[in-house]
Amino acid sequence: MNAPPFLQLNRPRTLKPGDTLGIAAPASPFDKEAFEVGSQVLRAMGFKLVVPPDIFDRDGYLAGTDIRRADRLMRLFSDPGIDGIISARGGYGAMRLLTLIDAAAIARHPKAFVGFSDITVLLDFLTRRCGMVAFHGPTVTTLGHGDPATHERFLSALTTRAPIRLPAEPPRVLSPGRASGRFCCGNLTLFCHLLGTPFQPDFNAAIVLVEDRGESPYRIDRMLTQMRLAGCFDNLAGLALGTFSQCGSNTEVDRIVTDRLGDLDIPILGGFPVGHEGTNTTLPVGIAAVLDTASGTLAFGSPALD
User: Fold this and answer.
1) Residue 101: which residues within 8 A CB-CB, separation 6 or more?
2) Which residues in the chain are classed under CATH 3.40.50.10740?
3) What is the pLDDT of residue 5?
4) In the chain, which residues fall in CATH 3.50.30.60?
5) Alpha carbon separation from 85 to 115, 179, 222 (Å, rounded)
6) In order along the chain (306 residues), what is the average pLDDT of each group of 10 residues?
7) Per-residue H/E/C for the chain
8) How many Å from the N-terminal Cα to the C-terminal Cα in the chain?
9) CA distance 80 to 265
10) CA 16 to chain centre
11) Count of CB atoms within 10 A of residue 296's CB?
């Protein structure tokens, strides 16, 4: 059911001040004020923005019809005047586009693409179906209220080729060890919702970082249990935990993860500033990473961009 992993991913071009970011709205509609504040942050970083004229369209709980959202996303990838793409918001709806977007066409135009939460499904699609590095990071609407570290790490990830080394803040060692593998990153709920589809995540020999928001502890338990029963973690190399905001205390989440996955004999490390609350660090998805509980770090050994 899974697409075969690419042995060598296309690395998008490193961005620079003056480059143009296209804004995509592949999921839910969003607050115009939050969008404007986030847009101002991007302009202050030196980026020009292309905002599709119908980006504020609504179709119930979606930012326009599936066909329109998919078409806009494809246009942003094919437009030579667009240097990178950032999602306006997560929410819900990106999964509905997976059968409507053309992997081969996107692969011909690799560009830095950034988003998180519901956008998890597109990050996985871009890395495994299109063979290109993508970036787990803030959306336009979350950048507006993001802290300075979120802004600085977003800009650095997209405009420099320096390999990223991210310390847990502070580290919480659930299971000690050191492992390397292809890096996957995203929302636990979205990864779980892809089970049983042709787009089911492939965590074979991977370092996986998961985060979530607003899920009761028993739901975290249920998702991890379901994914384990489905074989998702059979050959997992290592597990990193981002923020689990409004999901119970870190202690409770750690207890659940240890109970469900602690016998896998892999490094499991919590405390990474990635997710819906606090700093949301921008990280490259699809390239090799090393998770080391002794140093309390997640490190990428090579550049994510050309």
Assistant:
1) 70, 73, 74, 125
2) 20-159
3) 46
4) 165-300
5) 9, 31, 34
6) 56 97 98 97 98 95 98 98 98 98 97 98 98 98 97 98 97 98 98 98 98 98 98 98 98 98 98 98 98 98 95
7) CCCCCCCCCECCCCCCCCCEEEEECCCCCCCHHHHHHHHHHHHHCCCEEECCCCCCCCECCECCCHHHHHHHHHHHHHCCCCCEEEECCCCCCHHHHCCCCCHHHHHCCCCEEEECHHHHHHHHHHHHCCCECEEECCCHHHHCCCCHHHHHHHHHHHHCCCCCEEECCCCEEEECCEEEEEEEEEEHHHHHHCCCCCCCCCCCCEEEEEEEECCCHHHHHHHHHHHHHCCCCCCCCEEEEEEEECCCCHHHHHHHHHHHHHHHCCCEEECCCCCCCCCCCCEEECCEEEEECCCCEEEECCCCCC
8) 31
9) 47
10) 22
11) 18
Active-site positions read 117, 211, 276
Shortest CA distance to 30 belongs to which of 123, 113, 93? Answer: 93
Backbone angles phi, psi at 28, to 5 degrees: -85, 160
CATH number of 20-159: 3.40.50.10740
Q: Which fold has domain 165-300?
A: Glucose Oxidase; domain 1 (3.50.30)
- Let me know how long the chain is: 306
Indicate left, alpha or beta for 116 from its phi (over 0: left) and psi (-120 to 50: alpha).
beta
* Both tokens assigned to 37: 């504040």
Q: How many CB atoms lie within 10 A of CB 14?
A: 17
CB atoms within 10 A of CB 149: 14
Count the neighbouring beta carbons within 10 Å of the beta carbon of residue 36.
12
